[in-house]
UniProtKB/TrEMBL annotation:
One of its GO terms (biological process) is ribosomal small subunit biogenesis. GO terms for cellular component: nucleolus. Residues 2-197 form the MIF4G domain. Keywords: Membrane, Transmembrane, Transmembrane helix. This is Nucleolar MIF4G domain-containing protein 1 (Trinotate prediction). InterPro entries: ARM-type_fold (IPR016024), CWC22_splicing_factor (IPR050781), MIF4G-like_typ-3 (IPR003890). The chain crosses the membrane at residues 58-80. It comes from the Eukaryota. Coiled coil: none annotated. GO terms for molecular function: RNA binding.
């Protein structure tokens, strides 16, 4: 209940104050209970069936990032384990025609965590590989989401990884029966990333 009340009050103006409240809750209720409740409440707030505003995801994930850096790696390990279980669950649901935005909202959180250096490139790369295997419109949308958010950072930090991703995307597009408009735009985004031209990456 304390964690829910804390996260319900969260805004970009009160994060430091709420971090101090989080530390008090942690000292009173212990690491395991606090982390489990935090992760569960975070999921309820952010992993929704409809699209969330970028600012909303950013505020919650920023607070998670701060908590991670202040309290240590365990909370992030618990969080990522639960997050990817949820992702796999909703990813499989898309196979049976259940159209929701759960996966896109999870991808947004992962991208922000990568941007903040809470996680490395491996999870980003693994997500793209899995999406390329199925390569439906929702999957292309999520690949685009990752490339637009993380592509230029990958270019700076992990150029070899980005090169592999680009080759994989091009190969998958070549083997596709038909190129959708979204897939064509994805290739344009890749070209912009290769030429380090953020101005060419617009909303689609």
């Amino acid at each position: 209940k304390s964690i829910k009340m804390l996260l319900n009050k969260l805004s970009d103006r009160n994060m430091i104050k709420l971090l101090e409240e989080f530390k008090i809750i942690l000292s009173q209720h212990g690491m395991n209970n606090t982390y489990e409740e935090f992760v569960e409440t975070f999921m309820e707030c952010v992993i929704k069936p409809s699209s969330l505003a970028d600012r909303f995801s950013l505020i919650y994930t920023t607070f998670l990032s701060i908590v991670h850096f202040v309290t240590g790696n365990e909370i992030m390990a618990v969080f990522l384990n639960n997050l990817m279980k949820k992702y796999c669950q909703y990813f499989e649901a898309l196979n049976i025609g259940e159209i929701t935005k759960h996966c896109q909202n999870i991808v947004s959180v992962v991208c922000i965590l990568y941007d903040f250096n809470n996680i490395g490139y491996v999870l980003i790369s693994d997500l793209i590989k899995k999406l390329l295997e199925r390569f439906r419109e929702q999957d292309i949308e999520m690949i685009l989401q990752i490339l637009k958010y993380c592509g230029f950072d990958l270019r700076k930090r992990e150029p070899v990884v980005l090169k592999t991703i680009i080759i994989d995307v091009h190969n998958r597009c070549k083997n596709a029966e038909k190129m959708s408009l979204r897939a064509s735009f994805m290739l344009e985004v890749i070209t912009a990333i290769q030429h380090n031209n953020p101005s060419k990456v617009t909303d689609y």
